[in-house]
Amino acid sequence: MTAKEIITYMESLHDDEQRDNLMRFFKTAPGEYGHGDEFLGLKVPQTRKVVRLAGQPFPLSEIPTLLMSKWHEVRLCGLLILVDKFERLAAKRLENDTEAISQRDEIVTMYLQYAEQANNWDLVDLSVHKILGHWLLLPSNLGDRDYKIKVLDELAASPCLWKQRMSIVCTWKTSQQGDPSWCLRYAEIHLHHPHDLMHKAVGWMLREMGKRVSMDLLRDFLRQHAHEMPRTMLRYAIEKMPAPERKQWMNR
User: Is the dihedral of CA 153, 154, 156, 157 positive or negative?
Assistant: First the structure.
């Protein structure tokens, strides 16, 4: 399938009732964070099915056509194809393979180039940890750890809310693999972010870091910052703690 064929096929699946539901759910009214986004009315499993239909040989050069589509679900399809390609190239046996490293870097470069097209929280959350987050842990010809920090710092400092969200949600993968440093760095950077979507994202990633790496590290972070964290962020971060402890943290 070509990108144009994928778009035509996805358009044929449109569901007007589901479209209206999604546009309300993803806040597309004037003044809301998703204003201007357009939906076909497809559910995520339908989009994943299209990814499988596209097939693994789907050329990387076709993906920008999907990422630049006006349709939310088509952009998600493009992102999920990138995820599928990256995960195959990140298999244990290919971690240090020269060709796989080069191809992974190409995918990451494309992902960053079109980052603003992932312009809602679901597009970020379904892709960034599996591409950018995994890349942080793997060999790369683009640069070392300092270079990767620079990439994430630029996302964190961007005026684009979705790039900012990428910088913290990508740490889901690093925490899963036992490295808390990325989460702690970007949680602190975004501690005073004004947007509720970032409060939820930071709290969520802190909770995952505590669960996957160390609850003591999470408690250390909270002892330093709980008094200044937005309430939503704190509530998300402590969600898996026992009720008496949650109450103690919220009372701070």
Answer: positive
Count CB-CB contacts under 10 A for residue 12: 8
State pLDDT tens for residues 155-210: 999 999 999 999 999 999 999 999 999 999 999 999 999 999 999 999 999 999 99
DSSP 130: I
pLDDT band at residue 55, thresholds of 50, 70 and 90? confident
* 231 within 8 A of 200, measured Cβ to Cβ: no
User: Which parts of the chain fold into alpha helices (H)?
Assistant: 3-12, 16-25, 44-54, 63-67, 72-89, 98-113, 121-125, 128, 134-135, 145-157, 161-169, 171-176, 181-189, 196-212, 215-225, 231-237, 243-251
Q: What's the CA gap between 74 and 68, in Å, rounded? A: 9
Task: Inform me whether the pLDDT recorded for 1 exceeds 90.
Answer: no
- Would you say the C-alpha torsion 147, 116, 190, 200 has a positive or negative sign? negative
Decide: pTM greater than 0.85: yes
Euclidean distance between CA atoms 71 and 61, whole angstroms: 19
Query: For the purposes of burial, counting CB atoms within 10 Å of the CB of 144, is it exposed (0-12), middle (13-18) or buried (19 or more)?
Result: exposed
Give every CB contact of residue 6 below 8 A, 6+ residues apart in sequence.
Answer: 50, 53, 54, 66, 74, 77
Helix (H) or strand (E) holding 8: helix 3-12
Contact between 190 and 168 (Cβ < 8 Å): yes
Distance CA 153, CA 155 (A): 5
* CA-based end-to-end distance of the chain: 56
In sign, the C-alpha dihedral spanning 101, 202, 224, 237 is negative
Task: Check if the beta carbon of residue 116 is closer than 8 Å to that of residue 163.
Answer: yes
